[in-house]
Amino acid sequence: MRVDVVSIFPEYLAPLDLSLIGRARARGVLQLAVHDLRTWTHDVHRTVDDTPYGGGPGMVMRPEPWGEALDALAPAQAPPPRLLVPSPAGARFTQAMAHELAAEEHLLFACGRYEGIDQRVLDHAATRMPVTEVSLGDYVLFGGEVAVLVILESVTRLLPGVLGNAGSLDEESHAHGLLEAPVYTKPPSWRGHDVPEILRSGDHGRIARWRRDEALRRTAERRPDMVAALGDLDRWDRAALE
Ligand code: 6GU
């Protein structure tokens, strides 16, 4: 997969060199390039923003540098990338969207700062490529850079060959519409707290049932919206919640 990220703070994306994302890059599973938006300015001050039409606080990113950046990174001759614009006004980013993005050949992230990017940049880009505004949740960040770190981490771990143990992909929280059951390792007793006996029983059938019950109870407590979205429960699932 190819990924381009455009930002006025490319150093903010330095963590992409580390850990498993860094390893995916070193192995060539991920070809990632971070670009400084100011590359596409032409004035001495390398201006990227201006005051908003209609008034109001803050500054808006001017369209010209963005237009040139997108022309350079999504040239008309090549198959168009999917353009992702992190914004608190976007559609909520989910595990389902992570799977969708992991299937793309080329992602292009446009990181806005200040009050956002002039809307015409997105409108014009949409005539050439699919454009999606994405939000991490209902809170406001300074800019899109940290959102790109989050999105790329969730997408990269879904790429074939990135995770050592592919089994951890389908057992994880959100894969089955439930939060994950609690996990334990050695020692069996620690500071007066014991590992649940059933996990040490070797009875895989009962262990699977226990994990589902714990997952259901935890999800009902923390995320009742997710339990409601499961629809009708079978009698064993219903019993776990009684
Ligand atoms: Cl994706 N960007 C910004 N600037 N703020 C956010 C966000 C994204 N998601 C939640 N808050």
UniProtKB/TrEMBL annotation:
Protein EC: 2.1.1.228
Pfam families recorded: tRNA_m1G_MT
GO MF terms, alphabetically ordered: tRNA (guanine(37)-N1)-methyltransferase activity
List of residues binding S-adenosyl-L-methionine: 112, 136-141
Catalytic reactions on record: guanosine(37) in tRNA + S-adenosyl-L-methionine = N(1)-methylguanosine(37) in tRNA + S-adenosyl-L-homocysteine + H(+)
Cellular compartments per GO CC: cytosol
Chief localization: cytoplasm
Signal peptide residues on this chain, from the entry's feature table: none
Occurrences of domain tRNA methyltransferase TRMD/TRM10-type (ranges): 1-227
CDD domains, sorted: TrmD-like
Cell compartment(s), UniProt: Cytoplasm
Any single biological process term in GO: tRNA N1-guanine methylation
UniProt keyword annotations, A-Z: Cytoplasm, Methyltransferase, S-adenosyl-L-methionine, Transferase, tRNA processing
Summary of the function given for this chain in its UniProt record: Specifically methylates guanosine-37 in various tRNAs.
Assembly mode: Homodimer.
PANTHER family the UniProt entry points to: TRNA (GUANINE-N(1)-)-METHYLTRANSFERASE
Family classification: Belongs to the RNA methyltransferase TrmD family.
Protein name: tRNA (guanine-N(1)-)-methyltransferase
Organism per entry: Micromonospora sagamiensis
Name of the gene this protein is made from: trmD
